[in-house]
Write a structure and sequence with these properties.
Elements lengths: L4 H11 L18 H9 L7 H10 L10 H23 L4 E5 L2 E5 L6 H7 L1 H8 L8 H19 L8 H7 L8 H15 L8 H14 L2
Antiparallel strand pairs: 1-2
Length: 219
């Protein structure tokens, strides 16, 4: 994985204190690595290794330096990538299974018979990487970091820099003015996954429209 020995010890220590709750201290912004990761996984029928995914993301300008200390920078890069993988795993279920193993990451169109067992077995590790408090940064730092990633991701998908109005954005999301931040984030994930161009039923224009609506509603 992307963890060196010191980072592994840090991760294992923090994992022992990770609670079973799924309530995360996370900004309204999503981890924008989710969608480039989905694109990379769909681009090949072969399995991926964590460090290969990281290298591809770096080549696309979507992996940045996150800490002046090399060992902490390595840990934070790994955290972001693993967070995106486990988020995507939950989003794809139950229609598809994303196997998340350091040296064997791939999407299965047919759910393996042991998928439920693996999902439960990996629960503690998944909870650790889905809890932003383990990123070792304040909420404001995480938010600023995600804003930077989102700016890079805008260039990656070619989002229109001119924001649509909120009423139109809510209509795209099939929501009304009473929608909460939670409702908006949930619908964003549902629609982005539905229309992602690398999905069988995906549509590039609809996906871009959903991204533009999200850019408005996340402000």
């Amino acid at each position: 994985m992307l963890l060196d020995k010191n980072s592994q010890n840090h991760s294992q220590h923090a994992l022992s204190h990770a609670g079973s709750t799924r309530e995360m201290n996370v900004p309204k912004s999503d981890n924008p690595l989710i969608w480039p990761v989905l694109t990379l996984l769909k681009s090949s029928s072969q399995s991926w290794k964590v460090h290969h995914l990281a290298s591809e993301l770096q080549a696309k300008g979507l992996m940045h330096d996150l800490d002046p200390l090399p060992e902490k920078d390595l840990f934070k890069r790994n955290f972001l990538l693993m967070n995106a993988l486990y988020e995507l795993q939950d989003m794809l279920m139950p229609r598809q299974w994303l196997q998340v193993k350091a040296m064997d990451i791939q999407i299965f169109r047919i759910i393996p018979a042991n998928a439920d067992i693996e999902h439960v077995r990996d629960g503690a590790l998944r909870d650790y990487y889905l809890d932003w408090s383990n990123y070792d940064a304040s909420v404001n730092v995480v938010r600023e970091m995600l804003e930077s990633f989102w700016s890079s991701y805008q260039q990656y998908i070619g989002v229109n820099v001119k924001l649509m109005n909120k009423g139109h954005a809510l209509k795209v999301f099939e929501l009304d003015e009473t929608a909460t931040d939670r409702d908006i984030r949930k619908q964003w994930r549902k629609l982005a996954l539905k229309w992602h161009p690398d999905r069988d039923e995906g549509d590039t224009e609809r996906f871009r429209e959903v991204c533009e609506a999200w850019q408005t509603l996340r402000e």
